[in-house]
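Problem statement: downstream parser choked on a complex file, so we are re-checking the raw output for the zinc ion run. The parser issue turned out to be on our end (a line-ending mismatch), but while we're here, posting the original submission so the record is complete.
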Amino acid sequence: MYAMTPRCHLPPPCRAASTTPATSTALSTPPPSRAGPDELRSTWAHRAWTLAGSAAVLSSLSTSATLAAADADANGAAAAFAAPLAAALAAYSLADLATGVYHWLVDNYGDADTPVLGPQIAAFQGHHRHPSTITRREPCNNLHALARAVALALPPSGAALAAAGAPASAHAFAAVFAACVVLSQQFHAWAHGNPRRLPPGVGAMQRAGVLVSRAQHGAHHRAPYDNNYCIVSGMWNATLDRHRVFEAMEMVVFLRTGVRPRSWDEPDAAWTEDYDDTAAVAGGDTSLDTQ
Ligand SMILES: [Zn+2]
Ligand SMILES: [Zn+2]
């Protein structure tokens, strides 16, 4: 199956020989411009959505703790809290996988005009052109889009879990998964940040693999631009890339729809890093350090 993959790293005649009508937005997308100072600041709407998402997460955690405490009275604290803790760890792991799938999707398909996901697609694809911009965004500016999704989705999910009589571990899973998805954008920003300017402990967590590392995410920003999509801890990247999972998914999409992912084609100016822009960033934060 993989031998038939019409990826961009195959010789040009392979691509020319394809007879399937192919669609790619890579060659028609103009390079996104560098964000101005006003685009990097948090607005009151950004803060409100981030607050709402945080409140939703805290509410789910509170529900989980309340249920676990009630269970502790009957079964002991160790037994009552073991399952929610295990669920939280599972959520932390699966959130990394989920961010990888989502990042792969918005990096490779659609454009700014795509319904619903258009702004996220433009943001992720623009990030490849101006990767250091994320380090200069104010926190709520960076987090608000995913926080809004959590603010809208988590409360009804929690209500459904409560109505079904779900245990503490289910609420813990939902809360930690949502929190990790929102914070993935902060972890992503730290992966681009100057190590000397990161908050205390962040560098150590990156080196330990608790948070996605600069080296691992730096590889995502280098050719062939088709790997290391996960941005929570990065724990799934090696497995997904070794087994060429995204390449297989791209083949399924291509064979069913004729749509080529961006990563198959030679990146154009809308996809590759604007090195002049990076050099112009005050303070010298870079995206491609491998330390
Ligand atoms: Zn990307
Ligand atoms: Zn990045």
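For whoever reads this later: Residues 44-75 form the longest helix (32 residues).
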